[in-house]
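Quick one, T. Sequence first:
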Amino acid sequence: MPHSASAKKRNRQNLRNRDRNRVAKSGIKSSIRKVLEAIATGNVELAREEFRGASKTADKAASVGTIHRNRAARIKSRLSARVLAAAKGEAAPETKGRKTVKS
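Structure tokens:
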């Protein structure tokens, strides 16, 4: 347990930020899942709409430091490749050693 006033305050800040970061990360995962589900059902227009939302969510999280900016770029790149492949009617591009896009 923290003893000094500054340590107590820092603990409160850490707890508050942890909750905020969890919400942001959960939102990113949810938006990724929505894009992948839209692709799986074959609804390309819905996938494009959900991709825009996922991109925005990832960029917002990266701008405040919840996730690294390279991770946000990687998420957007992989989802974009899948949406474009779905629009062309092709199979999703292979990822290195992964079956699905993870976050």
